[in-house]
């Protein structure tokens, strides 16, 4: 098996920061309401992405937890993108329509150069009070 091929679903997590010119409310609204219109208008996204979810940071609570000494990350949100393979995921980011439609839209609300990515797989261990046994291919 190659370094890019796996039998597991691929998960890409990107931590993002809002543009300084936007309020927190404007950022969260644009990302949740407007950005999905651009994202979902691209054919390869619908073909290759299995799941897309957004994690919106609760800024007041984060700031409060920082004052209590917890090491909170300096990001405004995170996006999780799932695909069947690394190749399918990378095809999205190299697609001409994606580059023409989605990238300019991202530049309206987030600092693309400050995003941090992690790529791997998700192992679910506990759901609704029940342990999920580890699979043999872990």
TrEMBL record:
Belongs to the tpcK family. SUPFAM superfamilies: Dimeric alpha+beta barrel. It comes from the Eukaryota. GO terms for molecular function: oxidoreductase activity. Residues 21-112 form the EthD domain. It holds the Pfam family EthD. Transmembrane segments: none annotated. This is EthD domain-containing protein.
């Amino acid at each position: 098996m190659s370094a890019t091929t796996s039998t597991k679903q691929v998960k890409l997590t990107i931590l993002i920061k809002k543009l300084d010119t936007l309020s927190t409310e404007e950022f969260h609204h644009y990302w949740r309401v407007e950005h999905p219109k651009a994202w979902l208008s691209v054919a390869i996204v619908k073909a290759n992405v299995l799941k897309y979810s957004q994690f919106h940071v609760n800024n007041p609570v984060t700031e409060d937890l920082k004052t209590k000494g917890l090491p909170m990350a300096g990001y405004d949100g995170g996006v999780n993108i799932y695909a069947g393979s690394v190749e399918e995921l990378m095809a999205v980011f190299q697609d001409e329509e994606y580059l023409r439609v989605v990238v300019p839209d991202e530049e309206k609300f987030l600092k693309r150069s400050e995003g941090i990515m992690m790529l791997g797989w998700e192992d679910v261990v506990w759901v609704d009070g029940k342990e999920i046994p580890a699979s043999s291919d872990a």
